[in-house]
Amino acid sequence: MMETALSIRSEIKLMFSVGSLSSALHFSKIVAERKKRRFLINSIISFLNENDLDGVDVYWTWPSKNDRRSYIHFIRELKKIVGCAQEWKKET
User: Fold this and answer.
1) How far apart are the C-alpha atoms of 46 and 48, rounded to whole Å?
2) pTM of the full structure
3) pLDDT in tens, the chain (92 residues)
4) Separation CA 42–CA 65 (nearest Å)
5) Which helix (H) or strand (E) holds 16?
């Protein structure tokens, strides 16, 4: 997929999206627990690498007041690990 996209337009970035309006309850439970959050992040990294994608879009509309802290932890951890994975990808 990436090769086809780049052959059409070299500056294109391919990403995938996680979450939806209807999955907010499930997403909330996953990111609230550190072990589940790490599993999700590792799954995202694996998917990015296996499919040669540039990034991920997190779609979580209206996290509850209780979810905000979990959301912040998730985004910070995801950003750190995605950044490390992208640096490693550049080196190889």
Assistant:
1) 5
2) 0.79
3) 667 777 887 778 888 888 877 766 788 889 999 999 999 999 999 998 898 888 899 988 777 888 889 999 999 999 998 887 666 666 65
4) 26
5) strand 15-18
